[in-house]
Amino acid sequence: MRQRIYSLDALRGFSLFGIILMNIVGFTHDTFHLDPFIMFQHGWNRVLYSIDVLFIKQSFYPIFAFLFGYGLTMMKESADRRGDDFRPIIIRRLLALFVFGMLHGMFIFSGDILQTYALVMLFGAPLLFVDKVFSVMTSIILLCYYVMNHIVPFVINGLQLPRYDYIVTDVQRAEQVMHIFNSRDGSEIIALNMHHFFQFFFVTDLEGLFFRLTSLLPLMLMGSYARRSGWFEAIAQQSRYNRAAFLLLVTGLALKSLPLIFYARYSADAVGGYIGGVLVAAGYMLLIIRLSEHASFRNLTQPVSLLGRMSFTTYILQSVLMFMITYGFSLYGKLNLAATYAIAVLIYGLLVLTALIYFKRFEQGPLEYVWRKITYLK
């Protein structure tokens, strides 16, 4: 049990490192109006962005989505053992997460994912109460729908009209954005951040909602199925999953290399980003679960696992620190990728040190504590 829980915390802590490496690029550069493949096409920027595309981009949010479903199922099992009705518990938990995510997205980082996770699971929660086979079949159907309706059309259009298979850039708008984010005017910075949040990340219509339901809910339901089927225990005990992890990583990385081979092609990025990203994420999960069986790995990664125990707090703190550094020092659009990633590593290291000190006195993160109080009303 301790090893299984350790692997969950290690996965969360590991994912937080990938998430800050991914988020800091969007935090410090205008990826809304400029194509990052073009922005980072020269010298070390190209090398580092290629590494980002292969190993980081879209390969960490699937882990969090998976663990989100896994964690909610653990909570349901605990409520069932106590004889409690889980429905009001999960509704309070998701509504609280939605509010936290809205505040985070509007005032700190427009790319917030918390409110999206909460909204998606509010619709998907009934599937936690049905037979696990029906639940996982639903996730497969939703995943197939997403691929057929949001990836295949891009590939067909890209093959038929290759000259239009690139992200449209708006240099003039990007210059305006950079001016505002470097102005140190708090009201203007927050106003623009809110605009980006509601324009690019908040669900405003049924089409946007269904897009998120078909892309994210399958991953959450897979996490729920993993819990109900004892996947983590089986993976930890059977060495054949070493080969599975290797195959997933090789296949996923091959798909994620497509936008580097067919440079900056949107259709290639769509295939590599989602399908390849999910496969690489699955490979990462299998690898960490297997490695968590070894005492040497647990000793080495124990500080990272502590960070995973307060993943909610860490996710918000990462954004707060990126906000302070980027806008406080007027760095938006001015950094190369080496400096960008150096800041991310510095922030992550600082948070690991904070977790080491914090858990000498406390048993859970501060936001986790508040979230739990709202969830259980006690």
Verbal overview:
With 378 residues, this protein is an all-alpha fold. The two termini are 26 Å apart. Helices cover 79% and strands 0% of the residues. The protein has one domain.
User: Which consecutive residue ranges, at least 5 long each, have pLDDT under 50?
Assistant: none
The whole-angstrom Rg is 20 Å
> What is the typical, i.e. mean, pLDDT?
94
| 3D shape | globular
Percent strand: under 5%
Helix content: over 70%
Query: Structural class, please?
Result: mainly alpha
- Report the order of strands and helices: HHHHHHHHHHHHHHHHHH
Kindly report how far apart the N and C termini lie.
26 Å
Total count of strands: 0
Helix count, per DSSP? 18
How many distinct domains? 1
What is the makeup of the main sheet? none
Write the layout of secondary structure elements.
Blueprint: H1 2-28, H2 36-39, H3 43-56, H4 61-82, H5 86-107, H6 114-124, H7 132-160, H8 171-181, H9 186-201, H10 206-229, H11 231-237, H12 240-256, H13 258-261, H14 266-291, H15 295-309, H16 311-328, H17 337-358, H18 366-376
